[in-house]
Amino acid sequence: MASPPEQVARPATIRDVAAAAAVSIGTASKALNGRGRMRDETRDRVLAAAERLGFRPNPLAQGLLAGRTYTVGLVTGDSYGRFSIPVMLGAEDALGAGQISVFLCDTRDDPIRERHYLDRLLARRVEGIIVTGRRTEPRPGIGHDLPVPVVYAMTQSTDESDYSIIPDDRGGGVLATRHLLATGRTRVGHVTGPEGFQAARERAAGLTATLAEAGLEPAGEILFGEWSEEWGRQAADILLHAAPDVDAVFCGSDQIARGVAETLRERGRRVPDDVALAGFDNWEPMALGCRPPLTTVDMNLGEIGRLAARHLLDAIAGKPVPSGVHTVPAALVPRASTRRSI
Amino acid sequence: MASPPEQVARPATIRDVAAAAAVSIGTASKALNGRGRMRDETRDRVLAAAERLGFRPNPLAQGLLAGRTYTVGLVTGDSYGRFSIPVMLGAEDALGAGQISVFLCDTRDDPIRERHYLDRLLARRVEGIIVTGRRTEPRPGIGHDLPVPVVYAMTQSTDESDYSIIPDDRGGGVLATRHLLATGRTRVGHVTGPEGFQAARERAAGLTATLAEAGLEPAGEILFGEWSEEWGRQAADILLHAAPDVDAVFCGSDQIARGVAETLRERGRRVPDDVALAGFDNWEPMALGCRPPLTTVDMNLGEIGRLAARHLLDAIAGKPVPSGVHTVPAALVPRASTRRSI
DNA sequence: ATGAAAGCGCTAACAG
DNA sequence: CTGTTAGCGCTTTCAT
To answer: How far is CA A153 from each of CA A199, A282, A303, rounded to the nearest angstrom?
Structure first.
């Protein structure tokens, strides 16, 4: 038995719709796009046909004509994803709302791959590019000869004429320190990551500036080290030795804070009663798993992504846009580790 | 002074190339694509012109003609990203190699948004869709009336005729348990997440089956609870009470294992000397931050993504592909928490 | 109010 | 060996 000449899943074209509605292609187009004037009956007939055939305009054809693709590229080097994922999702969120689709590229922090992907994105005629990273360290921009706007999110270009948007690490340090002071602490130590990281330096600067405003100095030296729990454990001992009267520790990351918490406990210092503890990142599995749950600073990564996307949209739309490095305010997330029990 | 009629950044078209090389458009096309025969000199002239003008074929035009888009959609519901990100990057990796670009969509686990994004992806004429999740729990498929193939990665469709690829949780449980037995342990307890999770049940099943093979039973009850450190801490006490002679604990997640480690230490049990400890996930910040560093099971999430992508490519290519639920073997990552000091 | 025709950038078939 | 032509699906004048 020969099967009927069933139309395979070839998507319906406007031509099919026009034929089904017994109108010309041009009329069908107008009906579908609400353009031009025509008899209601005609329009309805076309729309009904489109509906029935499950017609969807081919975006390639539309884009070809309009000279637009309604796509942007999202280039990330942070395979690990801890930081860039929230940024990416924020960006995707803001772009998706505007009917812009996002091409995802993972460069694995490899400049060769990055170059390759940029090529591909441009070949695809993306209308803009968002570059995200895992560190806020300045990095060389991806070039200015690009035919589309570029924004840097959670990373910054060394080029002042690029637009970069990063967390306000300094402000985050200020927030945490103010909070510690507000709970009545005055001997505040600081344990953080490598001094080579701008984020570490900025957070520390926020702390010292805020302490200075209150006429205070950090308890002990500021301890730069690594972004690890192990360093937190070690550093806590160093700090306790250098400043035995320490009554608060602000840490450059939640991981470090957990290490500090552990050592404090083992040395018989109660958190928060004897020593208040604040982290940075609001990395929930870390912060909530801490004993007690950790007060920390949230960098609003999603917001960074959203702002980057909006900026990109503006640039694509040809609006005048600022350049330079911009920051997004951080937010304090108070938890038990700084709550003074009465 | 009138500025010269500078060509704005309008990308060069094949027409420009043809004109610059003084050939017809058709000839230019052939030269650029290595199709057809022609004088070397002509070909070179065209290629040189293309080079000089920075010509890139417009993928929209190519796709329009070929009826293909060389894009696939990646739909994730796991905004948190802990599990789906490695899967996504693995998929992106496998697809990128094949010149396929990936549209990223975050549904935030919201069926409405999912529906919306599917619509958008189909409107964009993606050639296939990968659905990823944060749990391996069966979920309703996204439908069979779709005009493109779909694969489920790190989540599974309830529909047997769909193709799903998930970690081998049971095999992971077997690996961990064998390892514990190999270090000479015989009283193995198990603390894991909610029984409602298939992953928890499978990992537990791997454990009990492996113990049974050795003529053993779990030490104490299998403790189902939550995926949290806090639960690990509580459960360890329960376990120590129920089976004081326990000499190993296999945990359903690294987070749980950390909680268990903490309680063990506080109760004076040394890890690994008195009690060996194994986790699950190989979530490095957790596993490495543990004291001592945690032996754990890696689910090979990247591989899951890669395989999903390859399967999708095969399906797109029209090759016959299997359906049903498939698993990717897990791998043991031995660290100090199970190393018997001599 | 509707239809015909041109053209977006490209490739493929066919002439010359 | 090269040029011409048709057409992918769609929108947009411009006739009718």
So the answer is: 14, 19, 10
